[in-house]
Write a structure and sequence with these properties.
This protein has helices spanning about 1-10, 25-30, 65-80, 90-100, 115, 120-130, 145-160, 175-185, 200-205, 215-225, 245-250; strands at about 15, 40-45, 50-55, 80-85, 105-110, 130-135, 160-165, 190-195, 210-215. The chain is α/β, with parallel strands linked by helices and about 260 residues long. α3 crosses α4 and α7 crosses α8 (about 175-185).
């Protein structure tokens, strides 16, 4: 293990566990035993404990939806907050790139190969400039898979003070599944875009309890005046300094 950790460090990848200070505290508070026992990171790990706003959505988003994703990202950057997303094509990449261009910071929680991602010139530049941390709970050489994406989705919601769904289709795709899981599991505050460019599933998510957002200014109000999140209490909640057993950490999906 020591040799493997040294090898990863040589490639710019650092391994975090719940015992490390940079490991996201919100995951321990909100996910309990569903928090990943290992997190592979590259970049500014301190961003994992900063105030984050999640932005997610479908890969095949409309042109207006693309504009919304970019405008939201610019507003998040202007507020001095960090944007969290999944790095997938569509809303994820659009919002992350817009944040970089606006001089903001980004947490990318990946369901694809971290080792491959950090070889891209724009990502390396963002890491060099201290704008980002890219991370994954999966083996850093693992390629993208639907299973990894489904397991990763909850991590975006649980990291963020509020996560905005720009566009999704009803009962279809990872964006829909992740939003429904977050609402049922109370992983974090979930908002859904209801203005021009919204997806066909957005209204249904609002009916299920997501916060409807009609404008960028309304989103900012929701960010700056949050309702108190009251996660379900559990005897299994992991707090800082608590001894954590192997059995408590293993249930996270597809840790390999």
């Amino acid at each position: 293990m020591a040799f493997e950790l040294e090898r990863l460090d040589g490639t710019g990848i650092r391994v975090l566990t719940p015992f490390d200070e940079e490991y996201p505290q919100t995951w321990l508070d909100r996910l309990n035993r569903k928090a990943p026992p290992v997190l592979y990171t590259a970049g500014v790990a301190d961003l994992l404990n900063q105030s984050c706003i999640g932005v997610v959505g479908s890969r095949d988003v409309s042109s207006k939806g693309k504009e919304v994703a970019q405008e939201v990202a610019e507003r998040v950057a202007s507020l001095g907050m960090t944007l969290a997303s999944g790095g997938a094509r569509g809303v994820d990449q659009l919002s992350m790139n817009a944040t970089f261009q606006a001089g903001g910071s980004v947490v990318g929680i990946l369901a694809e190969s971290l080792a491959h991602k950090i070889k891209k010139s724009d990502v390396r530049q963002a890491i060099f400039e201290g704008q980002t941390v890219m991370c994954t709970p999966y083996n850093p050489n693992s390629p993208f898979s639907i299973g990894n994406a489904m397991g990763r989705n909850k991590l975006i919601y649980a990291l963020s003070e509020l996560t905005l769904i720009v566009a999704c289709e009803p009962n279809k795709g990872g964006t829909w599944s992740g939003a429904v899981e977050a609402l049922k599991g109370n992983f974090g505050r979930v908002a859904v875009w209801q203005g021009p460019g919204s997806g066909t599933g957005n209204a249904q998510l609002a009916e299920m309890g997501a916060i409807p957002v009609l404008s960028i200014d309304e989103l900012e109000s929701s960010i700056l005046e949050p309702e108190e999140l009251e996660p379900e209490e559990s005897d299994a909640t992991i707090k800082s300094g608590t001894t954590i057993s192997k059995e408590q950490l293993l249930p996270f999906e597809s840790v390999a």
